[in-house]
Design a protein that fits this description.
The chain is α/β, with parallel strands linked by helices. It has one domain: Spore Coat Polysaccharide Biosynthesis Protein SpsA, Chain A. The chain is 30% helix and 19% strand. The chain contains nine helices and 13 strands. The strands form two sheets. A ten-stranded mixed beta sheet has the order 1-2-10-12-8-11-6-3-4-5, sandwiched between helices. It starts with a strand and ends in an 11-residue tail after the last helix.
Length: 278
């Protein structure tokens, strides 16, 4: 573990430590090739270079396969597909983990563009066991279209505010700000970094979740907490910009996923039964 210091506000901050570790960036996708291309362009701009990329596709779209086969990025890309049988994100994530050889697994979505120091900041605070996470800035349609049709990776604050993007406060890169330990993380599956050994300790993602809502983030969060792992909030460090798209109303599905989540919490099984190792 890294040394912990107490600042004058009575809170605790983690002191950064530079380590040259292996990283695997998992990108979850479903059909949207222009979005993935922009995300991969942002990965190409990363200042930390000791990484590979695994594109995990919850489906088997032929166009996606052809696109990835014809890309010419400087980093290796492993592309995994599965039959399109509804929401089975956790299953394809576990398939990706079965092929993983890196120490740190970073999870993003195929609609989230990265700040150039995104990977660097996660590596800087890697301690071998803690779960690291942050949020994302939600871009408006106009700003998203601008990014998709330009070489710009990080939009200006003025553009985002003018066009009414949300959570613009999460777009400020402030590396001097302390990274906080928290016991109430509320992680999201599109911006989190987890040591591979930590994922193995809870048997990866629970494949019982086949309805969107809780499976890939809320479920592993409570299992990590129950197992006693620490969480580091990376606000102002690992910046991410979510490209605009319409979001269908899935409250009925989410309610079903939520019900399963609470039943599993009551049972208290941390090492999930339908996970990385069967």
């Amino acid at each position: 573990m890294k040394p912990i210091t107490e600042n004058n506000m009575g809170n605790f901050a983690i002191e950064p430590m530079s380590i040259n570790i292996t990283v695997n960036v998992f990108i979850c996708v479903y059909k949207n090739i222009p979005f993935l291309q922009k995300v991969l362009d942002s990965v190409e701009e990363q200042i930390y270079r000791n990484f590979t990329v695994t594109v995990v596709e919850d489906g088997d779209f032929e166009g996606m396969k052809k696109f990835i086969e014809n890309t010419n990025y400087s980093f290796p890309i492993l592309h995994l597909q599965q039959e399109d049988k509804g929401f089975r994100k956790n299953k394809i994530l576990n398939e990706g983990l079965k092929n993983n050889k890196a120490e740190l697994c970073i999870f993003i979505d195929g609609d989230c563009v990265l700040h150039p120091k995104f990977i660097f900041e996660y590596v800087k605070y890697y301690d071998g066991s803690s779960i690291m996470f942050s949020k994302r800035t939600n871009l408006d349609e106009k700003t998203s279209n601008f990014l998709l049709n330009s070489n710009v990776i990080v939009p200006s604050k003025l553009m985002m505010i003018k066009n009414k993007s949300t959570r613009v406060e999460d777009s400020f890169y402030l590396p001097f700000k302390p990274v906080r330990k928290t016991t109430k993380p509320r992680i999201i599956g599109c911006n989190m970094a987890i040591p591979f050994s930590t994922l193995q300790a809870i048997n990866g993602f629970d494949e019982d979740y086949e309805i969107t809502g809780y499976g890939e983030d809320c479920d592993i969060e409570w299992r990590f907490l129950k197992q006693g792992f620490h969480f580091l909030h990376m606000k102002y460090h690992t910046l991410q910009f979510h490209l605009f798209h319409e979001r269908p109303d899935r409250e009925d599905q989410t309610a079903m996923s939520r019900a399963m989540f609470h039943k599993k919490k009551e049972k208290g099984i941390v090492f999930c039964l339908n996970g990385l190792v069967k």
